[in-house]
Amino acid sequence: MRRIFHIEDVTLGSERTPYIVRYRGRLVAPDSATAYDTLSTQLKPLGLTPLFRTEEERHVIYIIRGLPSARPSNPAVNLIMFILTLLSVWFTGGILGSEGELSGSAPQVILQLLRAGWPFALSMMAILAAHEFGHYLMGRHHGVHVTLPYFLPLPFPISPFGTMGAFINMKEVPRNRRILMDIGIAGPLSGLVVAIPVLLIGLSLSRLEPLPAFPQPGVLGQAQLEGNSILYLFLKFLVFGRLLPEPVSYQGLPPLLYWLRYLVTGQPLPYGGLDVVLHPVAWAGWGGLLITALNLIPAGQLDGGHILYTLFGRKRAQALFPIILAVLILMGFIWSGWWLWALLIFFFGRVYAEPLDQITELDGQRRLLGAIMLIIFVLIFTPVPLVLMP
Protein backbone atom coordinates (compact mmCIF):
# COMPACT_ATOMS: atom_id res chain seq x y z
CA MET A 1 0.00 0.00 0.00
CA ARG A 2 2.70 2.51 1.00
CA ARG A 3 4.44 2.07 -2.36
CA ILE A 4 1.45 3.55 -4.16
CA PHE A 5 -0.22 5.68 -1.48
CA HIS A 6 1.01 8.17 1.11
CA ILE A 7 -1.23 7.49 4.12
CA GLU A 8 -2.23 10.45 6.27
CA ASP A 9 -4.85 8.71 8.42
CA VAL A 10 -6.56 5.35 8.70
CA THR A 11 -10.12 4.68 9.80
CA LEU A 12 -11.31 1.18 10.61
CA GLY A 13 -14.82 0.30 9.56
CA SER A 14 -17.60 -1.00 11.74
CA GLU A 15 -20.92 -2.74 11.31
CA ARG A 16 -22.45 0.63 10.43
CA THR A 17 -19.97 1.49 7.69
CA PRO A 18 -19.88 -0.16 4.25
CA TYR A 19 -16.07 -0.44 4.30
CA ILE A 20 -13.49 -2.45 6.23
CA VAL A 21 -10.87 0.26 6.30
CA ARG A 22 -10.47 3.77 4.86
CA TYR A 23 -7.14 5.33 3.95
CA ARG A 24 -6.86 9.06 3.33
CA GLY A 25 -3.84 10.77 1.85
CA ARG A 26 -2.30 11.07 -1.60
CA LEU A 27 -1.41 8.68 -4.38
CA VAL A 28 2.34 8.56 -4.98
CA ALA A 29 2.22 6.17 -7.92
CA PRO A 30 2.66 8.08 -11.20
CA ASP A 31 -0.27 6.33 -12.91
CA SER A 32 -3.44 6.04 -10.83
CA ALA A 33 -5.04 3.55 -13.23
CA THR A 34 -2.07 1.19 -12.93
CA ALA A 35 -2.02 1.72 -9.16
CA TYR A 36 -5.67 0.68 -8.94
CA ASP A 37 -5.09 -2.43 -11.05
CA THR A 38 -2.08 -3.40 -8.90
CA LEU A 39 -3.94 -2.98 -5.61
CA SER A 40 -7.02 -4.73 -6.97
CA THR A 41 -4.94 -7.72 -8.04
CA GLN A 42 -3.28 -7.93 -4.62
CA LEU A 43 -6.60 -7.82 -2.77
CA LYS A 44 -8.52 -10.18 -5.04
CA PRO A 45 -7.29 -13.43 -3.37
CA LEU A 46 -8.59 -12.00 -0.07
CA GLY A 47 -12.04 -11.39 -1.52
CA LEU A 48 -11.64 -7.61 -1.14
CA THR A 49 -12.17 -4.72 -3.56
CA PRO A 50 -10.58 -1.24 -3.43
CA LEU A 51 -12.50 1.92 -4.26
CA PHE A 52 -10.58 5.05 -5.27
CA ARG A 53 -12.30 8.32 -4.36
CA THR A 54 -11.52 12.04 -4.03
CA GLU A 55 -12.95 13.79 -0.97
CA GLU A 56 -12.17 17.30 0.24
CA GLU A 57 -9.24 17.53 -2.18
CA ARG A 58 -7.68 14.38 -0.72
CA HIS A 59 -7.38 10.93 -2.21
CA VAL A 60 -9.29 8.23 -0.37
CA ILE A 61 -9.07 4.46 -0.69
CA TYR A 62 -11.89 2.34 0.69
CA ILE A 63 -11.41 -1.39 1.11
CA ILE A 64 -14.71 -3.25 0.92
CA ARG A 65 -15.71 -6.90 1.17
CA GLY A 66 -16.64 -8.81 -1.95
CA LEU A 67 -15.50 -8.92 -5.54
CA PRO A 68 -17.19 -7.55 -8.67
CA SER A 69 -19.24 -10.39 -10.07
CA ALA A 70 -21.60 -10.80 -12.96
CA ARG A 71 -24.45 -13.26 -13.20
CA PRO A 72 -24.46 -15.05 -16.54
CA SER A 73 -27.21 -14.02 -18.91
CA ASN A 74 -29.19 -16.30 -21.19
CA PRO A 75 -28.24 -15.69 -24.85
CA ALA A 76 -31.45 -17.44 -25.92
CA VAL A 77 -33.36 -14.38 -24.71
CA ASN A 78 -31.19 -12.13 -26.88
CA LEU A 79 -31.76 -14.38 -29.89
CA ILE A 80 -35.55 -14.48 -29.42
CA MET A 81 -35.76 -10.70 -29.05
CA PHE A 82 -33.56 -10.26 -32.13
CA ILE A 83 -35.82 -12.50 -34.21
CA LEU A 84 -38.97 -10.75 -32.99
CA THR A 85 -37.44 -7.35 -33.72
CA LEU A 86 -36.31 -8.47 -37.17
CA LEU A 87 -39.83 -9.66 -38.00
CA SER A 88 -41.35 -6.43 -36.67
CA VAL A 89 -38.89 -4.24 -38.59
CA TRP A 90 -39.30 -6.34 -41.75
CA PHE A 91 -43.08 -6.00 -41.56
CA THR A 92 -42.72 -2.24 -41.10
CA GLY A 93 -40.38 -2.08 -44.08
CA GLY A 94 -42.87 -4.07 -46.12
CA ILE A 95 -45.64 -1.55 -45.33
CA LEU A 96 -43.36 1.37 -46.18
CA GLY A 97 -41.97 -0.22 -49.34
CA SER A 98 -45.27 -1.46 -50.76
CA GLU A 99 -46.88 2.01 -50.71
CA GLY A 100 -50.36 0.55 -50.34
CA GLU A 101 -50.06 -1.85 -53.30
CA LEU A 102 -50.65 -5.07 -51.33
CA SER A 103 -53.19 -7.39 -52.90
CA GLY A 104 -54.05 -11.05 -53.42
CA SER A 105 -54.26 -13.98 -51.03
CA ALA A 106 -52.56 -14.09 -47.61
CA PRO A 107 -49.46 -15.95 -48.88
CA GLN A 108 -49.15 -13.45 -51.74
CA VAL A 109 -49.40 -10.50 -49.34
CA ILE A 110 -46.75 -12.03 -47.10
CA LEU A 111 -44.47 -12.54 -50.10
CA GLN A 112 -45.00 -8.92 -51.16
CA LEU A 113 -44.14 -7.74 -47.64
CA LEU A 114 -40.98 -9.83 -47.64
CA ARG A 115 -39.86 -8.47 -51.01
CA ALA A 116 -40.66 -4.86 -50.16
CA GLY A 117 -39.42 -4.94 -46.57
CA TRP A 118 -35.90 -6.31 -46.74
CA PRO A 119 -34.08 -3.04 -47.71
CA PHE A 120 -35.51 -1.21 -44.69
CA ALA A 121 -35.05 -4.19 -42.37
CA LEU A 122 -31.42 -4.71 -43.41
CA SER A 123 -30.66 -0.99 -43.04
CA MET A 124 -32.38 -0.51 -39.68
CA MET A 125 -31.00 -3.68 -38.09
CA ALA A 126 -27.48 -2.90 -39.35
CA ILE A 127 -27.59 0.53 -37.68
CA LEU A 128 -28.90 -0.86 -34.38
CA ALA A 129 -26.45 -3.77 -34.42
CA ALA A 130 -23.49 -1.49 -35.16
CA HIS A 131 -24.44 0.78 -32.25
CA GLU A 132 -24.91 -1.97 -29.68
CA PHE A 133 -22.00 -4.13 -30.77
CA GLY A 134 -19.82 -1.01 -30.57
CA HIS A 135 -20.65 -0.92 -26.86
CA TYR A 136 -20.33 -4.69 -26.52
CA LEU A 137 -16.96 -5.10 -28.21
CA MET A 138 -15.45 -2.12 -26.39
CA GLY A 139 -16.68 -3.54 -23.08
CA ARG A 140 -15.13 -6.90 -23.87
CA HIS A 141 -11.91 -5.16 -24.94
CA HIS A 142 -11.62 -3.62 -21.47
CA GLY A 143 -12.61 -6.82 -19.67
CA VAL A 144 -15.99 -5.49 -18.53
CA HIS A 145 -18.79 -8.06 -18.44
CA VAL A 146 -21.54 -6.83 -20.76
CA THR A 147 -24.53 -8.65 -22.17
CA LEU A 148 -25.20 -9.28 -25.82
CA PRO A 149 -27.59 -6.68 -27.31
CA TYR A 150 -31.27 -6.85 -26.39
CA PHE A 151 -33.32 -5.73 -29.42
CA LEU A 152 -36.75 -4.30 -28.63
CA PRO A 153 -39.62 -5.03 -31.06
CA LEU A 154 -42.48 -2.55 -31.28
CA PRO A 155 -44.81 -3.25 -34.21
CA PHE A 156 -45.97 -0.71 -36.76
CA PRO A 157 -47.88 1.62 -36.45
CA ILE A 158 -47.04 2.02 -32.73
CA SER A 159 -43.45 2.62 -33.80
CA PRO A 160 -42.69 4.05 -37.27
CA PHE A 161 -39.54 1.90 -37.29
CA GLY A 162 -40.95 -1.37 -35.95
CA THR A 163 -38.63 -1.20 -32.94
CA MET A 164 -37.82 0.77 -29.81
CA GLY A 165 -34.12 0.29 -30.47
CA ALA A 166 -31.76 -1.92 -28.50
CA PHE A 167 -29.56 -1.88 -25.44
CA ILE A 168 -26.83 -3.78 -23.65
CA ASN A 169 -26.47 -4.19 -19.91
CA MET A 170 -23.15 -3.67 -18.13
CA LYS A 171 -23.02 -6.53 -15.63
CA GLU A 172 -20.33 -4.89 -13.53
CA VAL A 173 -19.05 -1.41 -12.72
CA PRO A 174 -16.23 -0.14 -15.01
CA ARG A 175 -12.87 0.31 -13.33
CA ASN A 176 -12.39 3.99 -14.23
CA ARG A 177 -13.70 6.92 -16.26
CA ARG A 178 -11.54 6.13 -19.25
CA ILE A 179 -13.17 2.74 -19.68
CA LEU A 180 -16.65 4.21 -19.14
CA MET A 181 -15.95 6.88 -21.76
CA ASP A 182 -14.69 4.31 -24.27
CA ILE A 183 -17.77 2.13 -23.83
CA GLY A 184 -20.10 5.15 -23.91
CA ILE A 185 -18.82 6.66 -27.16
CA ALA A 186 -18.20 3.38 -29.02
CA GLY A 187 -21.92 2.81 -29.60
CA PRO A 188 -22.92 6.19 -31.08
CA LEU A 189 -19.78 6.39 -33.21
CA SER A 190 -20.27 2.87 -34.59
CA GLY A 191 -23.95 3.54 -35.25
CA LEU A 192 -23.20 6.78 -37.11
CA VAL A 193 -20.54 5.09 -39.23
CA VAL A 194 -23.36 2.90 -40.59
CA ALA A 195 -26.30 5.33 -40.39
CA ILE A 196 -24.75 8.15 -42.43
CA PRO A 197 -23.86 6.00 -45.50
CA VAL A 198 -27.27 4.30 -45.24
CA LEU A 199 -28.96 7.70 -45.22
CA LEU A 200 -26.93 8.93 -48.20
CA ILE A 201 -27.77 5.78 -50.19
CA GLY A 202 -31.41 6.10 -49.22
CA LEU A 203 -31.55 9.77 -50.22
CA SER A 204 -30.08 8.90 -53.62
CA LEU A 205 -33.00 6.46 -54.05
CA SER A 206 -35.58 9.04 -52.92
CA ARG A 207 -37.45 11.59 -55.01
CA LEU A 208 -38.53 15.20 -54.73
CA GLU A 209 -42.22 16.08 -54.79
CA PRO A 210 -44.24 19.27 -54.22
CA LEU A 211 -45.98 19.66 -50.88
CA PRO A 212 -49.70 20.51 -50.56
CA ALA A 213 -50.35 24.11 -51.55
CA PHE A 214 -52.86 24.90 -48.80
CA PRO A 215 -54.10 23.43 -45.53
CA GLN A 216 -57.32 21.47 -45.76
CA PRO A 217 -59.57 21.92 -42.71
CA GLY A 218 -60.63 18.61 -41.22
CA VAL A 219 -57.92 16.65 -43.03
CA LEU A 220 -55.08 15.51 -40.78
CA GLY A 221 -51.83 14.42 -42.31
CA GLN A 222 -51.84 15.55 -45.93
CA ALA A 223 -48.11 15.07 -45.61
CA GLN A 224 -45.76 13.88 -42.89
CA LEU A 225 -42.57 15.88 -42.52
CA GLU A 226 -39.64 14.23 -40.80
CA GLY A 227 -37.73 16.59 -38.56
CA ASN A 228 -34.47 18.24 -39.47
CA SER A 229 -31.16 18.29 -37.71
CA ILE A 230 -28.18 20.32 -38.89
CA LEU A 231 -26.49 17.21 -40.26
CA TYR A 232 -29.65 15.92 -41.96
CA LEU A 233 -30.23 19.30 -43.61
CA PHE A 234 -26.65 19.24 -44.89
CA LEU A 235 -26.87 15.66 -46.21
CA LYS A 236 -30.04 16.49 -48.16
CA PHE A 237 -28.27 19.50 -49.64
CA LEU A 238 -25.31 17.28 -50.54
CA VAL A 239 -27.57 14.88 -52.48
CA PHE A 240 -30.15 17.27 -54.00
CA GLY A 241 -28.38 20.63 -53.99
CA ARG A 242 -31.35 22.15 -52.10
CA LEU A 243 -32.20 22.96 -48.51
CA LEU A 244 -35.28 20.84 -47.89
CA PRO A 245 -38.16 21.22 -47.33
CA GLU A 246 -37.70 24.12 -49.73
CA PRO A 247 -40.24 26.87 -48.98
CA VAL A 248 -41.99 28.99 -51.58
CA SER A 249 -40.37 32.05 -49.97
CA TYR A 250 -38.44 33.01 -46.87
CA GLN A 251 -41.21 35.45 -45.92
CA GLY A 252 -38.83 38.39 -45.87
CA LEU A 253 -36.45 36.75 -43.39
CA PRO A 254 -32.73 36.23 -43.97
CA PRO A 255 -32.24 32.56 -45.00
CA LEU A 256 -30.08 31.81 -41.95
CA LEU A 257 -32.75 33.12 -39.55
CA TYR A 258 -35.49 31.25 -41.42
CA TRP A 259 -33.68 27.91 -41.22
CA LEU A 260 -32.70 28.44 -37.60
CA ARG A 261 -36.36 29.00 -36.72
CA TYR A 262 -37.48 26.04 -38.81
CA LEU A 263 -34.90 23.68 -37.27
CA VAL A 264 -35.96 24.58 -33.73
CA THR A 265 -39.73 24.89 -34.15
CA GLY A 266 -40.70 23.09 -37.40
CA GLN A 267 -42.57 26.25 -38.37
CA PRO A 268 -43.79 27.72 -40.63
CA LEU A 269 -45.17 24.71 -42.49
CA PRO A 270 -43.79 24.93 -46.05
CA TYR A 271 -47.08 24.75 -47.98
CA GLY A 272 -46.53 24.78 -51.73
CA GLY A 273 -42.84 24.05 -51.33
CA LEU A 274 -40.71 21.08 -52.31
CA ASP A 275 -39.58 18.17 -50.15
CA VAL A 276 -38.06 14.71 -50.41
CA VAL A 277 -40.23 11.61 -50.27
CA LEU A 278 -38.00 9.22 -48.38
CA HIS A 279 -37.16 5.79 -49.70
CA PRO A 280 -37.43 3.16 -46.90
CA VAL A 281 -33.63 2.96 -46.75
CA ALA A 282 -33.46 6.73 -46.21
CA TRP A 283 -36.15 6.42 -43.53
CA ALA A 284 -33.97 3.86 -41.74
CA GLY A 285 -30.95 6.17 -41.99
CA TRP A 286 -32.95 9.11 -40.65
CA GLY A 287 -34.23 6.89 -37.84
CA GLY A 288 -30.65 5.91 -37.05
CA LEU A 289 -29.70 9.56 -36.61
CA LEU A 290 -32.74 10.15 -34.41
CA ILE A 291 -32.06 7.12 -32.20
CA THR A 292 -28.40 8.12 -31.84
CA ALA A 293 -29.39 11.67 -30.86
CA LEU A 294 -31.84 10.38 -28.24
CA ASN A 295 -29.13 8.15 -26.79
CA LEU A 296 -26.79 11.14 -26.59
CA ILE A 297 -29.13 13.19 -24.38
CA PRO A 298 -26.71 13.98 -21.53
CA ALA A 299 -28.53 12.37 -18.61
CA GLY A 300 -28.36 9.24 -16.48
CA GLN A 301 -27.60 5.87 -18.05
CA LEU A 302 -27.92 7.14 -21.62
CA ASP A 303 -24.72 7.27 -23.67
CA GLY A 304 -24.75 11.04 -23.33
CA GLY A 305 -25.07 10.68 -19.57
CA HIS A 306 -21.94 8.52 -19.45
CA ILE A 307 -20.06 11.06 -21.54
CA LEU A 308 -21.24 13.99 -19.40
CA TYR A 309 -20.27 12.20 -16.18
CA THR A 310 -16.81 11.23 -17.40
CA LEU A 311 -16.09 14.73 -18.72
CA PHE A 312 -17.36 16.79 -15.79
CA GLY A 313 -17.80 14.47 -12.81
CA ARG A 314 -20.80 13.53 -10.71
CA LYS A 315 -21.38 16.88 -9.00
CA ARG A 316 -21.43 18.90 -12.21
CA ALA A 317 -23.51 16.27 -13.99
CA GLN A 318 -26.07 16.39 -11.19
CA ALA A 319 -26.03 20.20 -11.25
CA LEU A 320 -26.80 20.15 -14.98
CA PHE A 321 -29.61 17.62 -14.56
CA PRO A 322 -32.41 20.12 -13.69
CA ILE A 323 -31.31 22.34 -16.58
CA ILE A 324 -31.55 19.44 -19.05
CA LEU A 325 -34.94 18.52 -17.61
CA ALA A 326 -36.20 22.11 -17.89
CA VAL A 327 -35.05 22.33 -21.52
CA LEU A 328 -36.93 19.12 -22.40
CA ILE A 329 -40.09 20.42 -20.67
CA LEU A 330 -39.90 23.70 -22.59
CA MET A 331 -39.31 21.85 -25.85
CA GLY A 332 -42.45 19.86 -25.11
CA PHE A 333 -44.50 22.96 -25.99
CA ILE A 334 -43.08 22.62 -29.53
CA TRP A 335 -43.23 18.81 -29.77
CA SER A 336 -45.20 17.04 -27.05
CA GLY A 337 -43.10 13.88 -27.23
CA TRP A 338 -40.39 15.62 -25.20
CA TRP A 339 -42.69 15.60 -22.16
CA LEU A 340 -42.54 11.80 -22.17
CA TRP A 341 -38.75 11.94 -22.39
CA ALA A 342 -38.64 14.49 -19.57
CA LEU A 343 -40.76 12.14 -17.44
CA LEU A 344 -38.55 9.13 -18.20
CA ILE A 345 -35.38 11.08 -17.47
CA PHE A 346 -36.86 12.49 -14.25
CA PHE A 347 -37.44 8.97 -12.89
CA PHE A 348 -34.51 7.12 -14.46
CA GLY A 349 -31.95 9.75 -15.42
CA ARG A 350 -30.62 10.86 -12.04
CA VAL A 351 -28.34 7.88 -11.46
CA TYR A 352 -24.93 7.81 -13.14
CA ALA A 353 -22.59 4.86 -13.52
CA GLU A 354 -19.80 5.53 -11.02
CA PRO A 355 -16.52 3.66 -11.66
CA LEU A 356 -14.61 1.84 -8.94
CA ASP A 357 -11.66 4.18 -9.49
CA GLN A 358 -12.81 7.79 -9.51
CA ILE A 359 -9.34 9.26 -9.06
CA THR A 360 -8.09 8.41 -12.55
CA GLU A 361 -8.90 11.32 -14.85
CA LEU A 362 -9.51 11.27 -18.58
CA ASP A 363 -6.49 11.75 -20.79
CA GLY A 364 -6.40 14.51 -23.41
CA GLN A 365 -7.42 12.23 -26.29
CA ARG A 366 -10.54 11.05 -24.49
CA ARG A 367 -11.47 14.59 -23.44
CA LEU A 368 -11.25 15.58 -27.10
CA LEU A 369 -13.42 12.62 -28.13
CA GLY A 370 -15.96 13.52 -25.45
CA ALA A 371 -16.10 17.10 -26.69
CA ILE A 372 -16.52 15.85 -30.27
CA MET A 373 -19.45 13.67 -29.19
CA LEU A 374 -21.16 16.68 -27.61
CA ILE A 375 -20.71 18.55 -30.90
CA ILE A 376 -22.10 15.54 -32.80
CA PHE A 377 -25.11 15.59 -30.47
CA VAL A 378 -25.80 19.22 -31.44
CA LEU A 379 -25.42 18.37 -35.14
CA ILE A 380 -27.80 15.39 -35.14
CA PHE A 381 -30.33 16.49 -32.52
CA THR A 382 -33.81 16.90 -34.03
CA PRO A 383 -35.93 19.35 -31.97
CA VAL A 384 -39.17 18.46 -33.82
CA PRO A 385 -38.94 14.83 -35.01
CA LEU A 386 -42.28 14.62 -36.87
CA VAL A 387 -44.86 17.10 -38.14
CA LEU A 388 -48.23 16.34 -39.75
CA MET A 389 -49.42 18.95 -42.24
CA PRO A 390 -53.18 19.53 -41.93
UniProtKB/TrEMBL annotation:
Locate the transmembrane regions by residue number: 76-97, 109-130, 150-168, 180-205, 280-298, 319-348, 368-388
- Which keywords accompany this UniProt record? Hydrolase, Membrane, Protease, Transit peptide, Transmembrane, Transmembrane helix
Subcellular location per the Swiss-Prot or TrEMBL entry? Membrane
Give cofactor(s), names only: Zn(2+)
Gene Ontology terms: cellular component: membrane
Q: Which InterPro entries match?
A: EGY1-like, Peptidase_M50
List the GO biological process terms: proteolysis
Q: Name one GO molecular function term.
A: peptidase activity
Asked if the keyword Acetylation belongs to this entry, the reply reads no
The family this protein is said to belong to? Belongs to the peptidase M50B family.
Spell out the protein name for this chain: Peptidase M50 domain-containing protein
